[in-house]
Amino acid sequence: MRVNGSVFIVDNDAKTYALVSAFLTYQGYNLVKSSSNGEIVDTIKKNNVDILIADLDHLQAVSPGFLERSVFINPLLVVIGYAGMPSDVPVAVPHDNIFTLPKPLNLDELESLVMRAREYQAMHACDKSEGLSNQHQLLSATMVGASQAMRGLFDMITKVAGSNATVLIQGESGTGKELAARAIHQLSDRVKKNFVPVNCAAIPDDLLESELFGHVKGSFTGAYSNRAGRFEMADKGTLFLDEIGDMKANLQVKLLRVLQNREFEPVGASKSQKVDVRIVAATNKNLEELVVSRDFREDLYYRLSVIPVTIPPLRERRDDIPLLIQAFLTRFNSDKRNSVKGFSRDTLEILCNYEWPGNVRELENLVERLVILKRSGFITPDDLPEKYLSGRLPVQIPVQVPAKVQSSAHAVPVVNELPEGGICLNSAVEEFENRLILQALARSGGNKKEAALLLNLKRTTLIEKLKKKNLAYGEE
Ligand SMILES: Nc1ncnc2c1ncn2[C@@H]1O[C@H](COP(=O)(O)OP(=O)(O)OP(=O)(O)O)[C@@H](O)[C@H]1O
Ligand SMILES: [Mg+2]
Questions:
Q1: How far away, in angstroms, is 393 Cα from ligand 2 center?
Q2: How far is the CA of 364 from the centre of ligand 1 (A)?
Q3: Which atom of ligand 1 is nearest to the CA of 182?
Q4: Which of 52, 259, 265, 433 is the most exposed place for a label (fewest CB within 10 A)?
């Protein structure tokens, strides 16, 4: 079984202890036993404990002040604590390494917090890892992502930001092209000057030239005064030419001239004007194809794509989905003063397996809408709009939701049908069985007789299975 990390459980209630330990063993965690002297700090240090799960009342009683000191024991230690009422949480919980949930314990909630704990650790481990520049940290504060593709993108952005080279960003709609363009500007020496976006598709063709280059008074009907264009506004800064694939041929020639000579002529002017602008262009069209079909000038394409950057669609970097959801949830909870706690495991599974034709923008909008409508508690599949649910079969083999900390090799796709590369039937069936058993135990409050009834098994068969599966569920 995969080992995810080391967990130490502090709870004086035998039933809850048994339930939590069985659940975490099933999840692949290594359960740490208390050190011989019974000292919690000692146990954590000796066993490199990653996650401490505790009944907060009990924890405070046996180790007063522990929560306040926890982050100093191990900076990556996360405490997941439960208390009778949120107001029973014995400290003001000022640390972001402490997550709390109410009693009675709900395994879905616990699992969601364990996932958050792993994300917290991965994020902070990254912060501390050698060679991670300040620039990288600045980037990850605005652009969320830990997939290989996004890490590659962060590297590329940090490398190119310092140069003046023209960057062409390609990617489907909503993948984050504008965000990447802004990040390049933010990390460049030009940061104190303007970042000027121009959407070439949104401005009517006959106005785009004057919008870009400005005009002199009287140059056309309605030109009542001299007006600076976006190139001039972006002097010493960055000009972001969005939807460049929609630019008409006559303007493509003029743009090429600016790129070659670093000078332009405002509409109606007789003299050209020098300009020092860094150009970042973006498109969701395939420019190479437009070049082949002669809709885009080849010479301009080469001028623009000195540094080509492609942002892959979200469905090709599914590892980022839980991280983006968490980031948007935190943002919208805070913006809207709501307190949605998280997404249930099955909801996350659905979202991780959805195709996301609108990419990150669609995900962002969905989370915003769910936070507004739900306000508090956990988002469940019932809260999702219909389109996210279609294509789901009534029974799915449960899977591990890909989290930042797991390599993509660990991410098992939801098995609605036999994957192309085949599947290990035994492990899939065993996972399914384990989960149902644990759910039955959770529902029966740990009572094996009742759990066996729920599963239509004999009590002895259930106990046998628990032993065989090494799901150490309490003492017999
Ligand atoms: N990696 C990310 N982390 C956080 N937010 C993101 C990320 N990528 C995209 N977003 C958010 O998704 C939304 C869409 O991003 P953006 O406008 O940059 O996409 P785009 O590729 O320019 O889309 P379009 O082609 O439709 O213009 C924005 O609100 C942006 O903040
Ligand atoms: Mg855009």
A1: 35
A2: 9
A3: 18
A4: 433
